[in-house]
Specification:
The protein contains 16 helices and 5 strands. With 400 residues, the protein is mainly α.
Length: 400
């Protein structure tokens, strides 16, 4: 049987060729939402006749995003979060192979990241160049920390104090600019951006893990303690079946969030939480974390891994037919990260990897956005698909 490293390496070579040809600009699922036409339709009054007209138009936009991008001449953009993932990926391959081309590719990403940091905050931070729940350019925790992981990886590789200084600066942003809810004496939750006060579990945990990591390196006890309290908050909100809702219960009734959205459980955010808990446990060695990780991991495996039909977007039956490349990449990261927990997990990795490559990778090297029983959306989203798959493939290659 082929080893995961060999399968991933073959796929990576094709993806790397595509990335080299494409450059660092690309499209994103949010690109479509910047069309004036799209914005105009979403603002129609909620009247039944207008809903009947709007529904097929929205489905047409959803099913054929590349058509609308060409029709409205939407420009590709540099998306910092994607650059952070690619920089980490290239560094992984440089460490593994010593090939200078990967170091050069990583340096190109870092050069752009240095230019795109958002000004006016306590430290380095990054957002996304399109309107999402917040105005374009609003710095957010997850994007900033994913980029922070790239700087941390370069610091670990070369030991340059300038890279550690960027990580320290990101922590200044997390501590001083994000809104923080002191839920209890032992728990805190970090907001997603400086503009909101939501309790988003995966976002808060990203902040917590990074504060612990950099706090321990710099011997900053306050940051470590804040991170520990952030971990406690997420642990308290783990459900009995091992799952994690997207939002914390404090947000119920305070924002225009439906109960269904509040309790949403999807594959890639669940994966984020499990990987951050694993990293926090390496740093803290808290016995309570082991049980939480085990419960969450087996909920994930039972609900989000299907080596025959792909990686479902959510555990709910209504969306199990939807295979999203972001979820596929996260599944590979999870299976690789936890392969030492259980031999069955290690055996699943090559099966899932083969399915993703066979069903989601184009002959030219890039990965498709989404697969449904009706249509495969073959558009190449740089951040959402290519960058995350690059991170998953190179993680497998480097660790084996």
């Amino acid at each position: 049987m082929l080893q995961p490293k060999d399968i991933a390496n073959d796929s990576w070579k094709r993806l790397y060729f595509w990335l080299s040809q494409n450059g660092l600009e690309g499209y994103d699922p949010y690109s479509i939402k910047e069309m004036p036409f799209y914005y105009w339709i979403t603002k129609w009054p909620q009247l039944l006749p207008l809903k009947v007209i709007r529904f097929p138009i929205m489905r047409l936009i959803e099913f054929y995003p590349a058509l609308w991008i060409r029709l409205f001449h939407l420009p590709p953009k540099v998306i910092s979060k994607g650059l952070g993932l690619l920089a980490s990926s290239y560094l992984s391959l440089y460490r593994k192979t010593g090939e200078k081309k990967y170091l050069k590719s990583a340096d190109q990403c870092f050069d752009l990241l240095g230019e795109s940091s958002v000004k006016g905050f306590s430290g380095h931070c990054w957002g996304v160049p399109f309107v999402w729940q917040f105005p374009s350019g609003t710095p957010c925790s997850v994007a900033s920390i994913i980029i922070g992981h790239a700087y941390w990886a370069r610091y670990q590789t070369f030991g340059q104090d300038s890279d550690l200084a960027v990580c320290q600066s990101i922590c200044d942003f997390l501590v001083n600019d994000l809104n923080r809810d002191d839920v209890s004496p032992d728990e805190v939750c970090f907001s997603y951006t400086p503009l909101d006060r939501t309790h988003i579990l995966n976002g808060s945990l990203f902040s917590s893990e990074f504060l612990i990591r950099i706090g321990k390196e710099l011997k900053n006890r306050r940051w470590v303690e804040l991170g520990e309290k952030g971990v406690n908050y997420v642990l308290r909100n783990q459900q009995e079946d091992g799952s994690f809702w997207y939002f914390g219960p404090e947000d119920e009734g305070l924002y225009p969030i439906s109960s269904r959205t509040l309790k949403k459980v999807d594959g890639y955010h669940t994966g984020f939480i499990l990987r951050m808990l694993k990293e926090a446990n390496k740093l803290l060695s808290i016995h309570q974390l082991e049980g939480a990780i085990e419960r969450g991991l087996y909920f994930y495996l039972n609900n989000f891994i299907d080596e025959k039909r792909g990686i479902p977007f959510t555990h709910l039956n209504i969306h199990r037919h939807r295979i999203d490349i972001h979820g596929c990449a996260e599944a590979l990261l999870i299976l690789n990260a936890f392969a030492d927990y259980d031999s069955k997990i290690d055996e699943l990795l090559p099966k899932v990897l083969i399915w993703v490559i066979k069903n989601m990778q184009d002959p030219s090297g890039y990965f498709y956005y989404e697969k449904t029983p009706i249509i495969t959306k073959k558009i190449a989203y740089l951040r959402w698909g290519q960058a995350w798959m690059a991170r998953a493939l190179t993680d497998i290659i480097e660790s084996r």
